[in-house]
Specification:
single chain, alpha+beta, two-stranded antiparallel ribbon, about 10% helix
Length: about 40
């Protein structure tokens, strides 16, 4: 649980080829990141 003033952990996502990629890698190079959340209805 985060406390007030704590930094949030850097999100890490799995790429299509199965590699773990931290989003900070994109942010540091100035690239844009779009996250799409799909809800499974079933």
């Amino acid at each position: 649980m985060l406390k007030p003033g704590d930094y949030a952990p850097t999100p890490t996502l799995q790429s299509i080829d199965g590699k773990a990629t931290p989003l900070a890698q994109f942010w540091q190079t100035g690239q844009h990141v779009v996250l799409v959340f799909l809800r499974h209805l079933g």
